[in-house]
Write a structure and sequence with these properties.
The chain is an alpha/beta fold. The chain has helices at residues 4-18, 23-35, 39-44, 52-66, 71-75, 99-108, 127-135, 148-160, 203-208, 222-230, 250-260, and strands spanning 77-80, 83-86, 117-121, 140-145, 167-171, 183-188, 235-244, 267-270, 276-282.
């Protein structure tokens, strides 16, 4: 039976051939997942053999990764903010860049004890709204999504992090099932990939993540138009509308918000890679 060291070497080679850009890391994380050891534990016992049960499970997971299935789906979790969030197929995987959106909202609402009422459109795993509720203990949130898988995932994450008492989850396509108004913050990471660009995305994304959470229409702006049109009726005066955007969409969003006549001039925030990532505007 393979030792840990042999498993790491052989698996990294397999994954490199299949197109993984991080084959050594993938191999290590899969081995840790199967054996229940952390990275130090694996490296400290290179000659320890995998049991037959461990090998069978490990080989199955490696096969899934060879088909470009995202590591987050294979491992069932993804780190975001201060959480290890549960992730499942059919739900968009949280991206590190999205933390810029959380930070931007917190930079505006510096009073962490404020009793804010927050709406997230397209809640997904709950990464954004749970992070905001975690940082603002008196805030309450409503998260909506059209996907039953996403709502179930967000509910699991809210319960696991003891935030379910301040988060309501509801099935809704954008505002369709949102009767409430007077929100202090409306936040969304809507689908913003141009339809024709989706086949050119990395295999992990194009072949495995839900197109519903990726496809923003011909110009990538369909969801933004819809939200900008309806958000004023749901935001209180001075309330914040916060979006994550694609790296080349800042000018388009500025124009959409300006043309609506309902918002202050948009502010653009960059991510750690210095790409335009967040758009912020307040309701007039």
């Amino acid at each position: 039976m393979l030792t840990y060291q042999q498993a790491l070497i052989e698996t990294a080679s397999r994954l490199k051939e299949s197109g993984s850009t991080t084959p050594e890391l993938d191999a290590l994380l899969l081995l840790c997942h199967v054996t229940g050891k952390d990275r130090i534990g694996v490296y400290a016992t290179p000659k320890e053999p995998l049991t037959s049960e461990e090998y069978s499970k490990f080989d199955n997971l490696v096969g899934r990764r060879e088909k470009a299935e995202p590591m987050a789906y294979i491992l069932g979790e993804k780190g975001f903010w201060e959480f290890d969030l549960k992730v499942r197929k059919g739900v968009l995987i949280p991206r590190p860049d999205t933390e810029s959106l959380v930070e931007a909202i917190l930079d505006i609402h510096k009073d962490r004890n404020a009793e804010l009422n927050i709406l997230e459109l397209g809640v997904g795993t709950g990464a954004i709204i749970l992070s905001l509720l975690h940082e603002m203990p008196n805030a309450k949130g409503l998260g909506v999504d059209v996907s039953p898988d996403a709502l179930a995932c967000a509910e699991e994450n809210a319960e696991a992090n003891n935030l379910d008492d301040r988060l309501t989850l509801r099935a809704s396509s954008w505002f369709d099932n949102v009767s409430e108004d007077g929100f202090d913050v409306i936040v969304s990471t809507p689908p913003y990939i141009r339809t024709d660009d989706i086949p050119n995305l990395m295999r992990d994304v194009a072949h495995h993540e839900p197109s519903l959470a990726l496809d923003g229409g011909n110009d990538g702006l369909d969801a933004y138009r819809h939200i900008i049109d309806e958000a004023p009726a749901k935001l209180k005066a001075g309330g914040l509308l916060a979006f994550e955007i694609g790296y080349d969409q800042a000018d388009d969003l500025k124009k959409l918000l300006k043309d609506s006549g309902n918002f202050t001039p948009a502010v653009i925030v960059k991510d750690l890679a210095e790409h335009d990532r967040v758009v912020l505007a307040h309701r007039l």
